[in-house]
């Protein structure tokens, strides 16, 4: 099976072999594996690619090394070798079959630099480096995890991973891939996974202590769904350290705030620019959602190596008109308030809310910010050194904005999102003012 993309100079072709399964190298636990309520709401597939190039090593053994180390890593992370099913209570659980993920070897007819130059114009080309099971009708039929190793004609290779978010959040994904790399290099695991997710079970009886506005359904009085009938365009906007410094300075003007983080300032800027570019009605309620890592905020803290979703979605609400007529510092204050909201009782309340309602966060009038910039995704090392490029493939949804590390220092960021064409032009103008 192959896929072809052209950039005018040559036709990129990636030939995939037939997938095979990679079961754990030893017998692992069978039966059902519990997924907590924080896992239930985010059963979407996350796709990432990790590119490697080592002049000394080439890529001849890449697929063999990645495959063999994976079968050893799955002994420790055995739920990833199973498949999703539905429990009698109607929730997602893992059937630990031990069958292992589909694994695909592929070859590209170009160098890695040629691929990246095409990707700078058309980021969606990177999806050819991740194996996708065609014909899966729903999340139950989709494997929880797939791996593709693609060799380039320059000696580089890519490890493309698709993993269901209900299995891992960003922190767990990084720890798993890092452990897999340690095994590939013949090292002991620096962090052993803690697999018991029942420590995040709902309370009995459940107790809802907060409004849990992340689930609030907002009426689209701005008719934005009409805008989304236009062609979607995807762009990455670079923010170097100098530009980020200017943005934070703007946020602190007027001395309303004593301090703010890069994340808070950038989130505030993007939320405002997006409301303006989608031409939201002044009375349009708009919601900001973003994930906060709750591992250290639970009481007691989650154990080291907790394997699963230790994140909770926090939120803040505002009318679009109020947001746009107030200074940037006001929006940053709203973001800071959402960060402060996350305590042990808030997270337990969110877990219990799902137990009682089975609600999904509503995305009308909503912006969901995902910060990959804080994750050490550049660190998985299979023996070829650190990655020369790491990143997600595609944007998970039209309401999602990704903050990605950019450049060698990893302190510069890219803001990556998709918008209707007319809205993107306004968004770009707003972002360029900084």
- Provide the structure class: alpha+beta
How many helices does DSSP assign?
11
What is the mean pLDDT? 92
Determine Rg (CA atoms, Å).
Answer: 22 Å
Shape, per Cα inertia axes? globular
How many strand units?
17
Distance between the terminal alpha carbons, to the nearest Å?
A: 46 Å
Q: Which ranges are low-confidence, i.e. pLDDT below 50, for 5 or more consecutive residues?
A: none
Strand proportion, as a percent range, falls in 15-25%
Q: In percent, how helical is the residue content?
A: 25-40%
Order of helices and strands: EEEEHEHEEEHEEHHEHHEEHHHEEEEH
Keywords: Transferase
Protein name: Omega-hydroxypalmitate O-feruloyl transferase
Family: Belongs to the plant acyltransferase family.
Organism: Spinacia oleracea
């Amino acid at each position: 099976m192959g896929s072809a993309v052209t950039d005018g100079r040559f036709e990129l072709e990636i030939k995939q072999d037939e997938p095979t399964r990679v079961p754990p190298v030893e017998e692992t636990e069978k039966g059902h594996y519990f997924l907590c309520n924080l896992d239930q709401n985010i059963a979407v597939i996350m796709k990432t690619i990790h590119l490697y190039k080592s002049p000394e090593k080439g890529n001849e053994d890449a697929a063999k090394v990645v495959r063999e180390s994976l079968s050893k890593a799955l002994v420790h992370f055995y739920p990833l070798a199973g498949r999703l099913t539905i429990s009698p209570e109607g929730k997602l659980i893992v059937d630990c079959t031990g069958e292992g993920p589909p694994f695909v070897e592929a070859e590209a007819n170009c160098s890695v630099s040629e691929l990246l130059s095409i990707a700078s114009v058309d980021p969606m080309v990177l999806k050819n480096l991740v194996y996708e099971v065609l014909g899966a009708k729903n999340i139950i039929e989709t494997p929880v995890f797939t791996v593709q190793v693609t060799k380039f004609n320059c000696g580089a290779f890519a490890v493309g991973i698709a993993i269901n978010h209900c299995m891992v959040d960003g922190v767990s994904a990084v720890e798993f891939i890092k452990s897999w790399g340690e095994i590939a290099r013949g090292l002991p695991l620096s962090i052993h996974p803690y697999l018991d997710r029942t420590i995040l079970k709902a309370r009995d009886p459940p107790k809802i202590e907060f409004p849990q506005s992340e689930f609030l359904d907002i009426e689209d009085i701005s008719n934005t769904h009409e805008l989304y009938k236009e062609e979607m365009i995807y762009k990455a906007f670079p923010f170097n350290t100098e530009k980020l410094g200017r943005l934070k300075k703007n946020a602190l003007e007027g001395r309303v705030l004593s301090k703010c983080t890069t994340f808070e300032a950038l989130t505030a800027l993007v939320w405002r620019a997006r409301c303006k570019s989608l031409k939201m009605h002044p009375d349009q309620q708009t919601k900001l959602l973003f994930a906060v890592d709750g591992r250290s905020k639970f009481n007691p803290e989650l154990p080291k190596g907790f394997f699963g979703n230790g994140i909770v979605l926090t939120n803040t609400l505002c009318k679009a008109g109020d947001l746009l007529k107030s200074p940037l510092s006001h929006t940053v204050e709203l973001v800071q308030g959402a960060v402060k909201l996350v305590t042990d009782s808030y997270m337990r309340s969110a877990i219990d809310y799902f137990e009682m309602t089975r609600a999904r966060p509503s995305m009308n009038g909503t912006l969901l910010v995902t910060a990959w910039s804080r994750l050490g995704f550049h660190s998985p090392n299979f023996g070829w050194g650190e990655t020369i490029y790491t990143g997600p493939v595609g944007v998970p949804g039209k309401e999602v904005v990704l903050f990605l590390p950019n450049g060698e220092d990893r302190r510069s960021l890219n803001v990556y999102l998709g918008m209707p064409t007319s809205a993107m032009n306004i968004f770009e103008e707003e972002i360029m003012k900084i």
